Amino acid sequence: MRATGSVRFGDQELLGRPVHRISRLGVGRTFQTSTIFEELSVVQNLDIAAGARRSRATLARRRRGIPDEVAAALETIGLTGRAGQLAGTLAHGQKQWLEIGCCWCATRGCCCSTSRSPG
Hints:
Elements: E1 8-9, E2 12-13, H1 19-24, E3 27-30, H2 42-50, H3 56-59, H4 68-77, H5 92-107, E4 110-113
Helix pairs in contact: 2-4, 2-5, 4-5
């Protein structure tokens, strides 16, 4: 069934746009089943998500520390103390928070979740 009505972010109509174009406008989404990289650390997951907004030249550059946006996300989602932990070893609720953090790092605009409550 085709959706009717209107979904807007700022002055942009979202309904009918391809997902990648919606993401470029700064709108992300998470799902009940987490889609994190379980074999990577918490901070690596967030750094990859933040890379969606970086130029290609800076993606391959070795970083000397945790980027500010990643550190902010770690604090916001309450996983600062688990930054180096493998994401696959997190509890279910923590994985959901990590996915929300990844969404926030990738878009810095709006993050929509299909879960009623993370964790």
